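Final report, Chapter 2: Outcomes

The project's central promise was a pipeline that accepts a single protein chain and returns its three-dimensional structure in a standardized token representation, suitable for archiving and comparison. That pipeline is now operational. To close this chapter, we reproduce one record exactly as it appears in the project archive, with the input sequence first and the structure output second.
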Amino acid sequence: MQFELMASMMCANYGNLEREVKALEAGGIDSFHIDIMDGRYVPNFAMSLNDLRYIASAARRPIDVHLMIEHPNNRIDIFLKNLRQGDTIYIHPEAEYHPSTTLQSIINAGMIPGIAINPGTSVETVMEMLRIVKKVLVMSVNPGNAGQMYLPYVGKKITKLLSLKEDMDFEIYWDGACSADKILEFAPKGVRGFVLGTTLLFGRDVSYEETLHNIRELRF
């Protein structure tokens, strides 16, 4: 079974970021997930524009930028110019007056447009945007901090999105508290990719290569 694995780089070891990027790529990571937080849309500050620039320059694999910031359209150009065509940018619809305008800017730059859906955001409120985006990042925890507990009612939202994805032509990705049992349950149902943080990937006593191999060899 094919599914994508993305490294949540806010959980990486910043004592040697170059080594982290190279080890993750050598281990078989599919893309690098970069969380940008402004301390306003979410009550935390996370990765910086300089972090994004460095990882984008050092990595050969694609970059996924998750913008947890207010009014991303005001700043979208500074992110677009530091990425390559084919990279992904997710925005939160609630953070923008006209999210479709921001998504169109992402499309015009040759990037992949995505939206991130908070646990408290219903599918119905983003229905029209599902016709624009190519990726939907489902938050299984409230955004802003790593190491949170999974919110079980999110599973029903994923079921609803799975019923829509073929008709509306988007893929579903999981972000937050991603454990092996969640991959075992939701990958066979059609979730395309999983953002890996402290639950499965970082802060372990084994190499990234061994960890990623073990995840891909899960018994379905």
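Archive annotation: The two ends are 8 Å apart (CA to CA).
This record, like all others produced under the grant, will remain available to the consortium after the project formally closes.
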